């Protein structure tokens, strides 16, 4: 039983590490996509305002 508990603990630690890495990566991806979206919206807004003028 002790060996099983230890292996479960190690498994949980590895999963937490994997999860945190995945989470950091997805947060970075969301940030970059949000930034590009904002840039795109700004460009569209600028071009539409220049067209209106």
Automatic annotation (TrEMBL):
Protein name as annotated: Uncharacterized protein
């Amino acid at each position: 039983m002790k060996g099983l508990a230890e292996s479960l603990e190690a498994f949980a630690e590895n999963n937490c590490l994997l999860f945190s890495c995945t989470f950091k990566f997805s947060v970075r991806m969301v940030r970059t996509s949000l930034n590009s979206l904002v840039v795109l919206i700004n460009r569209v807004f600028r071009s539409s305002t220049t067209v209106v003028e």
